Amino acid sequence: MASQTMTVPPLTQGLISIKGSYGDWRDELFSQGYYVVKGAIPRDRAIQYQQRAFDWLKSFGTPLDLNDPSTWKAENLPVQSKLNTFDHYGVVHEKFMWDARLEPGVVDTFAQIWGTDELLVSFDSLNVTFPNRKDKPPRAPWPHVDQSPMKRGLHCVQGIINLSHAGPEDGSFMLLPGSSALSDEFWDTQTDSASWESKDWRRFSEDEMKWWESKGLKPVKVAAEPGDLILWDSRTVHWGGEPTQKSDTIRTVIYASYSPRKLATEQALAEKQRVFKLNGATTHWAHDNIYLRPLVAHLPDGTIDPRNRAEPLEKPEMTEKLMKLAGLVPY
Ligand SMILES: O=C(O)CCC(=O)C(=O)O
Ligand SMILES: [Fe+2]
After folding, report:
1. I want to staple 88 with a disulfide (CB 3.0 to 4.6 A). Which of 125, 152, 286, 297 is the partner?
2. Within a domain: 262
3. Gap from CA of 239 to ligand 2 centroid (Å)
4. How far is Cα 43 from Cα 227, in angstroms, rounded to an integer?
5. Contact in structure between 111 and 105 (CB atoms under 8 Å)
6. How far apart are CA 132 and CA 242, in angstroms?
7. Residue 174 CA, closest ligand 1 atom number
8. Is 140 a member of any domain?
9. Quick check: CB of 158 below 6 Å from ligand 1?
């Protein structure tokens, strides 16, 4: 199959050269592909962020009542994605979202991962998943990775700032521990390199999932408390697990990934600045994949949501730290 070998695209190597053992939690992150930092944010502050997310949900003048499950339906909510996320109405840049992203315990964790505090942060969404919604059946598992087969090694560590209790019945992050370490083998033995895309997202079919299972990997639902930070290598096979019928917890999480500013191209930084000024959202990545997601909220019938907002309700304070993390000013 010489011709196939010749078509193998150039591979980008990892951005962290993992040097044996760190003797701390990073060893687990790098070997298992995930790690939960307990209490990265003090619990009471995490609960306040959840409350501020709820206040934001209620700011659209609907009969939504967080204590009354009969009101948990699309018509009472701002436009939500199939994945239970919100990224329109400038929510990504609401003050509560930035306050959470700026939490020292979160930023310092990523500084330790990357060995620098000169970081950028992603402009990513809020996820509020209501259990037992009559109008929205639970989504089937959607196992995927957020890194292209053309990028090898560790390029991105993703994060979930967890604001609600996640027990066995609740919505939470699901993953195959150990899958990041097998990703090269998967791409090289189970896929045709001609099919590889540079897009940093790849979903796995049921058949492909059998290969991961044949390697002895089993799905785990991550248990977490308000204030915990769930970290994972973007090569880890994962999905957002839906609450079971037994859950009465409103899953509330903020996605946040940080990486060194020096990894971003001038073009990526310019685009990040443009997106920030538009109060827009990008992808899960902080230094790369800076694509503006659709800004304007559309209702299911395709019309523009009359509640559309071009700006956050409560703008963040433009501190130096925020401007640096947003990529607006250099370190
Ligand atoms: O909601 C989740 O737990 C997973 C979301 C996800 O796939 C991601 O943030 O990359
Ligand atoms: Fe993902």
Report:
1. 297
2. yes
3. 6
4. 5
5. no
6. 10
7. 3
8. yes
9. yes
In whole angstroms, what is the distance from residue 153 CA to residue 145 CA? 13
Residue identifier of the C-alpha nearest atom 5 of ligand 1: 240
* CATH number for position 236: 2.60.120.620
User: 173: Cβ below 6 Å to ligand 1?
Assistant: yes
Ligand 1 proximity of 284 Cβ (cutoff 6 Å): yes
Note whether residue 4 is domain-resident: no
Q: Half-sphere exposure of 227 toward its Cβ, with a 13 Å CA cutoff? A: 13
Each residue of 194-213: pLDDT tens digit?
999 999 999 999 999 999 99
pTM: 0.95
**String of DSSP letters for 193-249:** GGG--SSS-EE--HHHHHHHHHTT---EEPPB-TT-EEEEETTS-EEEEPP-TT---
Measured in angstroms, how far is the CA atom of residue 279 from the centroid of ligand 2?
Answer: 22
Read off the pLDDT of residues 102-123 as tens digits, 9 standing for 90 and up.
999 999 999 999 999 999 999 9
Q: How far is the CA of 55 from the centre of ligand 2 (A)?
A: 26
Decide: 124 in ligand 1 pocket, CB within 6 A: no
Is 2 inside a domain boundary? no
- How many structural domains does the chain have? 1
Closest Cα to atom 7, ligand 1: which residue? 239
Q: How far is the CA of 204 from the centre of ligand 1 (A)?
A: 15
Which of 284, 285, 293 for a ligand 1 pocket mutation test, highest count of atoms within 8 Å of Cβ? Answer: 284
Per-residue tokens: 149: 């087969």
The CA distance from 100 to 107, in Å, is 10
**CA–CA dist 133, 71 (Å, integer):** 9
pLDDT computed for residue 58 by the predictor:
98
Owning domain of residue 74: 25-326
Amino acid at 323: M
